[in-house]
């Protein structure tokens, strides 16, 4: 596994900082949404999206975007708090570092395919982030989401998922299923079923990771350092295995 770490380019950092300022500016007042806590919140607080929360998650996103690992083909990961390394002392240790290639990460806690999840933080859903995420080019794009989408209306999630794949036409895409979070397992299964169906329709590779049992932090939602390493290494292996087979071209 290639894990060489080097800083992102100046343009990437400036762009990420500008994005952080944007979400801080656009962050709205608190409003309760679906069940389940957002990253960094207790369940009792509900899905309360505040300016402080948006600013914190934006800062974590910028920190992770500044870390580029490996060398070789250009790999872009678009994901949520698992990708951004929520809860880690060093977000650069989040699971994408274990992928092969030159890996860049667009991760933002609380987000997913649905536009409605964190809309008070600005245009940060997966389909809205695609253009910036692939601005430096990509030979492979890995999508890691669905946990947060399990709290949204499934039709909205499918709309956002299709929009993401539409934005990525012309790129090789790997879709990871949402991993297992026991408190939301039933809803996550429904999201995964949809993503598998739509991935087949678009001709992109879908990789199941719902079967994994991984070391979690006390919130039972986010990975420990060891969990990130296990997840990253398994994902890297499953991607390599999937690419050794014939996969329909993305249309």
Break the fold down into its secondary structure elements and pairings.
Blueprint: E1 5-7, H1 10-26, H2 51-65, E2 67-69, E3 74-79, H3 81-84, E4 102-107, H4 126-133, E5 140-144, H5 154-167, E6 173-176, H6 185-202, E7 205-207, H7 225-243
Parallel strand pairs: 3-4, 3-5, 5-6, 6-7
Antiparallel strand pairs: 1-2
Helix pairs in contact: 1-2, 4-5, 5-6
Q: Could you describe the 3D structure shown?
A:
The structure is a single chain. 38% of the residues lie in helices and 12% in strands. The chain is of the alpha/beta class. The protein has a single domain (51-240), classed as Rossmann fold, CATH 3.40.50.1110. A five-stranded parallel sheet has the order 4-3-5-6-7, with helices on both faces. It has a two-stranded antiparallel sheet with strand order 1-2. α4 (126-133) packs parallel to α5. The longest helix is centred in the last third of the chain and has 19 residues, at 225-243.
Please, what is the average pLDDT? 84
CATH H-level superfamily: SGNH hydrolase
Taken as a percent bin, the fraction of beta residues is 5-15%
Structurally, how many domains make up the residues?
A: 1
Going by helix content, strand content and strand pairing, the class is: alpha/beta
C-alpha-based Rg, rounded: 16 Å
CATH class: Alpha Beta
Q: Under CATH, the topology is which? A: Rossmann fold
Within the largest sheet, what's the order of strands? 4-3-5-6-7
- What multimeric state do the chains show? single chain
Overall 3D shape: globular
Work out the number of β strands: 7
Largest sheet, in brief, is: 5 strands, parallel
Topology as H/E string?
A: EHHEEHEHEHEHEH
CATH architecture: 3-Layer(aba) Sandwich
> What helical percentage do the residues reach?
25-40%
